[in-house]
Amino acid sequence: MTSLLILNGPNLNLLGTRQPQVYGSTTLADIEADCVAYGTELGVNITCTQSNHEGELVDTIHAAKGTFAGVILNAGAYTHTSIALMDAISSVELPVIELHLSNIHAREEFRHKSYIAPVSIGQICGFGAAGYRLSIDAMLGHLR
Ligand code: CA2
Scanning 37, 70, 86, 126, which has the fewest C-beta atoms within 10 Å of its C-beta? Predict the structure, then answer.
């Protein structure tokens, strides 16, 4: 069975509790449960994890090699700063989809830069929590 990793970065554990006008009112636990349920529907194993720590995200990407066929990554603010995450993705040679709830291109200038984009197969942003299911579909389409 195909296994996918859904990896969320800093502050995304706060989803649904603050700034609902920007990030929606769905909690991360709700999103993760929905991804797992969608995976069951599709016959795909979905594992979800979140960390606020850059090094831990790097470790998780390294460990994904050999276990997961692809990674869906919402790296949060590390998207715009982290060469370490970019290098980790390059080093594992796994397909990664960059995901954001908000449309980072319609927001502040500093969010337009992504270190993840050049090492990803594609980017999905601006569709809120629905982006997670879209990313699963896109990853499965890529792997097929
Ligand atoms: O739109 C996204 O998914 C982001 O990755 C979210 C990050 C932001 O830095 C990126 O530019 C775009 C921020 C996540 C913060 O999440 C919060 C959720 C609720 C309350 C406060 C923060």
Answer: 37
Ligand 1 near 76 CB (within 6 A)? yes
The model's pTM: 0.97
100 is catalytic: yes
Return the sign of the alpha-carbon dihedral for residues 73, 74, 80, 82: negative
pLDDT of residue 18: 84
Q: Whose CA is nearest to atom 5 of ligand 1?
A: 76
Query: Counting beta carbons within 10 angstroms of the beta carbon of residue 47, is it exposed (0 to 12), middle (13 to 18) or buried (19 or more)?
Result: middle
Q: What is the pLDDT of residues 79-94, one digit of tens each?
A: 999 999 999 999 999 9
For residue 105, indicate whether it is catalytic: no
Strand, helix or coil for residue 128:
coil
Residue 139 has pLDDT above 90, yes or no: yes
Confidence of residue 104 (pLDDT cuts 50, 70, 90): very high
Best residue among 7, 8, 11 to mutate for probing ligand 1's pocket (most ligand atoms within 8 Å of CB) is 11
